[in-house]
Amino acid sequence: MDRLIERPRRLRRTEALRQLVRETWVQPSDLLFPMFVTEEAESREIPSMPGIWRYTVDDVCRKVEEVVRVGLKAVMLFGIPLQKDEVGSQAYQPTGVVPRAIGALRKNFGDSLLIVPDVCLCEYTSHGHCGVVKEGEVQNDATLELLARAAVCYAEAGADIVAPSDMMDGRVAAIREALDANGFTQVGIMAYSAKYASGFYGPFREAAGSAPQFGDRRSYQMDPPNLREAMREIALDIREGADIVMVKPGLAYLDVLHVARERFDVPLAVYNVSGEYSLVKAAAMNGWIEEERIVEEILTAFKRAGADIILTYHALDYARRWHKIHGETKL
After folding, report:
1. What one-character DSSP code corresponds to residue 112?
2. CA 80 – CA 131 distance, rounded (Å)
3. What predicted TM-score, i.e. pTM, was given to this entire model?
């Protein structure tokens, strides 16, 4: 046998060697932790999402103390109101649960925490759709004004970035115009630009009580087979003023994420959604997988594919492990 010239295994022999040449690292500061805040009287764990809770405003502040302590820098807030109506009016009330939570977090954590509220109507409408419904169809343009009102409401409460997830055409432009007109030129927009009509959202819909009461969301969320259309959606959102763009879900759409990274020179986020989280949790609880290894592989895949920001329900668990290994070392 000829003498081997190349031996890639030399650099895999020990953990120290592997770390020395490691190409991709995921740190807590790369992660954004989604949290549910409720108007219910007490916090409750979500059955289909073990370890994830609906928090009261007081409890979300207490939980974020740990979030910050282990090195996470940002949270996304989803509101769960007690009252819902046809036009999702609790989404844009200054006394609503999300503005109250934003105000409480800002008071407690100042600028050390990045607060990113989701902007959509589905958690707030009695029919469960992401916009105004007329004669059984979601109305695009009538929804834009309400989304813009919600974004301004959250900015007034102290949000750093607003994140429209509705997939209405033109919503980034409408929100940017409303924010600027109200003096919030510094508030950014993280657009759910390529959001697919996915089967991976089931546990979230249980958590937020946002399942459509009729039909589905295929008329406004993207068709899963389409990649080129995703690039068009992302380009539109950037032109309309999005500061950060997102691909959602993550695991089944890594190709979309990678092509977006190659094509667009803006911060790129990916959402590791509820169904992806629950699949891992269920398998781990049955002893079928090693949860920590699987989570690290998943998050690394997102970063390797090109994500700058990873929204994941695994964020707190991952950050706890990182903090335990690295201690008080500055991240």
Report:
1. G
2. 16
3. 0.94
